């Protein structure tokens, strides 16, 4: 089984990688589990994780990363995300772009870039519950 994950180097993405690796039935199955961490910088230290440096905001990097992946990806987990904590009067345009390009456009670029590897595979998009939590300084998020 081949699983590609974005954002698997830290936070929730790293916790998902740990959870997959800790599943006893997965580890004892006859099928090898390969996790390809398409991380933007921080790498998961586990030896069963294959790290491929890829920025989800960059279609060219995703295209290049695709050549390091197997031809068949069973599951793509889009978990890359980020936030800029700033009130609107202090929020710069590049901060706005970085949040939206990571959290929204990154999903589109990753799915589109890996579509040929995902024939018949599963796509899991992790999104925030922030719409249910009042925030005063995360406009872009």
* Broad structural category: alpha/beta
- In percent, how much strand structure appears in the residues? 15-25%
Number of helices: 4
Helix content: 25-40%
Amino-to-carboxy terminus distance:
33 Å
Principal-axes shape call: globular
Determine Rg (CA atoms, Å). Answer: 16 Å
Largest sheet: 5 strands, parallel
Low-confidence stretches: none
The total beta strand count reads: 5
Order of helices and strands: EHHEEHEHE
Strand order of the largest sheet: 3-2-1-4-5
Write down the overall mean pLDDT. Answer: 84
Oligomeric category? single chain
Overview of the structural elements:
This protein is of the alpha/beta class and 141 residues long. The protein contains four helices and five strands. It has helices at 11-22, 24-27, 59-66, 93-114, and strands spanning 2-6, 34-39, 49-53, 75-78, 122-125. The chain has a five-stranded parallel beta sheet, covered by helices on one side. Strand 4 (75-78), helix 4 and strand 5 (122-125) form a beta-alpha-beta unit. The termini are far apart.
Task: Offer a quick outline of the entry.
With 141 residues, the chain is of the alpha/beta class.
Features:
single chain, 141 residues, alpha/beta, 5-stranded parallel β-sheet, 33% helix, 17% strand
Topology:
Layout: E1 2-6, H1 11-22, H2 24-27, E2 34-39, E3 49-53, H3 59-66, E4 75-78, H4 93-114, E5 122-125
Parallel strand pairs: 1-2, 1-4, 2-3, 4-5
Helix pairs in contact: 3-4
